Amino acid sequence: MHNNLAISFSLLSYLGCFLFSLTPMAFAEPQIYLSGQGSTIARYPSDGSNRDEILQSYYVPNYAAVDRTNSRFYWGAAQKIMRCAFDGSNFEIVFDHLDGLSNVTGVAVDPVNGYIFWTDYYASSIWRGNIDGTGTPEAIYTGASSPVGIDVDTDNGHIYWGQQGNARIMRGNISGLGTPTQITATGGGVTGVAVDSTNEKLYWANFGGQTLDRSDLDGNNNETLFNNGDGVAASAGISLDIANGLLYWVNANGIIYRGNSDGSGALTQLFDVSATDSTSQGVGVSPDGTQILFTGDVNIYSGASDGSGTASTAVNLSNAPYTPGYLAIDVSSRELFFSDSFPSAGIKKVDLEFEAITSGILEGTISTLFDNATDNVTDVSGLAYDSSSDLLYWSDSATQKIQRGSNDGTGAVTDLYDNGDGLTFPQDLVLDADADLLYWIDANDVTILRANADGTGAPTVLFQAADGLTNPRGLALDPSSDMIYWGDITDDLILRANSDGTGAITTLWAAADGISNPDSIQLDAENGKIYISDSGAEDALLVGNMDGTGALEALITGLSAPNRLLLLADADDDGYPDGVDQCESDSAKTEPGDCGCGVVDADTNSNSISDCLINADAKDRIATLRSLVSSLKWTGTPNKKRNKKRRKAQKSTLVEIQSIHDELDSTMTTNLNSYTLASPSLNLSKRLKKALRKTRRAKKTKTSNFKKRKKQAKKTLLKLNNALTDS
């Protein structure tokens, strides 16, 4: 037999329900869901131009800055820059990894010129973007040696930043022009940097030396203001209240201090949040000097600048303490399932709200279905969903099991296969719901296996190391062709073979084609496309032909460690996936509405009637009017008693005839040119006027020629009706 290894998965267990219409830049691609990316689950449109975050992780918030003009507090957190008002309101993400951020370690704000500046540790560069988050940021200085901490001297047009790699502080121009200049060597790793342009002083925190230092803006007159003996320990971010001559800083252990900016006097410990948030790196003082905000592990805290009272939580960032991995989805119930490894292992779900993808935050209610403590779900390494049975299937590499459970988390977990069946490290579970078969990779044994989805019988080894498997990952299945696909993260390959284990393994792409670390694969069998999440050198979502012909295309680039991939069919590319979208081929509509899919429910005449219904509305009124006229009886008979009785019985009918007559007159006269006619040569105005005139005459039931007038009215109303098409 044969075999394979790795870590991978397939998420659309009922792929037949999701027939994607896509080809890069040529037809509608599916919605793209990616886990990883810094502990997030993100959703992308077909071209990757936007990114909605379904599940966010803000990381540990770090170095901070204050916009004193607009009273805003800014802070960095790995691949994000965020901000809020000083009361904690108006929280928002300003830039994220899609804007080029990889590891923000310092933020500075220039409201005068409308810029944000930041240091990027991993990119070894200094960046600048618009303060409102618009536009595309740019790296204005590169080659910085592990930059940490930055501030702006708006008055003199300079920015200052620290470099931990070579223990110095550098200065550059706000414009990004020219070559950066070394201001001073610090003798230790620099963290926070602050500028007092009024008194022409530069402050910094010396992390390694455990001191707070300052110098002139040109680097002269270097002096230590406070040291370890004063309580400075692993100091991080600093902030100045220039008007009151005060300096604030945080020790990385969660203690906030204040001292005089000239180094005189004793230090004051303001707040200690080390019991709940052991890490603090950023602090900022409000423009009026009465309040400070500072960062913790998962919170932004607020407190009085003199330390009175207690610090309160201004912004709670603990809403996403997740490490999502494998993904599956139930479109009909709008639930996204994901495996989680930290802080609590298990399987969780998040409620979805489908809408156009606009780079927003779409966090829904998150609930735990299965966990380690209750269900012994320890290390989920593959996840699939069967919509026909509402069952979730998963592999657990730690417990060496293939299991299943209900999609709502109720009931017991069923063990389908375990180490007694030869499982050692099962990963990348794929379900063929129609054939009731499960496929997975066993990483330790370097095999690809198949077994019955109900747990009966023994697993069958399809491919193994002897067949050329090295380190397989990203298993995917195409039931329509009975083929399985996977990547190899050691040999940088994309491969495929028959799903029954017969025949040879075919290499579709290799490193020369752009494959460097293929973590996850998804298939669009309808259009013959394969999607590859590559977290190696490419850090991109790649797309190519399932048969290996042609070149791979990078559909979305600039990703950061993309992990697991999920595709969701969206034929009209409007953000509402097929199955939810009732108008799958109409990007302007998600339900038929008045006019049906493909027709806009427009009311160009503002008459409260959709244009598509105007003919139907008129024909309905005409039919009603004709029926009422038909019901009228002559009241001019010799029998006065009968006449009186008829007149009384027809009184309400005559009132209704007049009402509909007037409505039809008003509506059709107003919209005369909007109706669709059975023949272009018809004179609708003439027919309308004649029908209305004859109807008015038919109301005179006492006249001797009533029956003739009634017949004429019915005839002209029928001709008016026939002048209009049925749609």
Give the structure's gist in a few sentences.
The protein has 727 residues and is mainly beta. The chain is 12% helix and 38% strand.
Task: Please explain how this structure is put together.
The model is unreliable at 1-27 (pLDDT under 50). A hairpin with a 7-residue loop joins strand 27 and strand 28. Strands 1-40-39-38-37 form a five-stranded mixed sheet, with no helix packed on it. Strands 4-3-2-49 form a four-stranded antiparallel sheet, with no helix packed on it. The chain is extended, with a radius of gyration of 36 Å. Helix 2 packs antiparallel against helix 5 (706-722), helix 3 runs antiparallel to helix 4 and helix 4 packs antiparallel against helix 5. With 727 residues, it is mostly beta strands.
Q: Cα distance, first to last residue?
A: 64 Å
Strand count, sense and barrel status of the largest sheet are:
5 strands, mixed
List the total number of helices. Answer: 5
Instruction: Tell me the total number of β-strands.
Output: 49
As laid out across the biggest beta sheet, the strand order is: 1-40-39-38-37
Basic shape: extended
Summary keywords:
727 residues, 38% strand, 4-stranded antiparallel beta sheet, 49 strands, extended, disordered N terminus, mainly beta
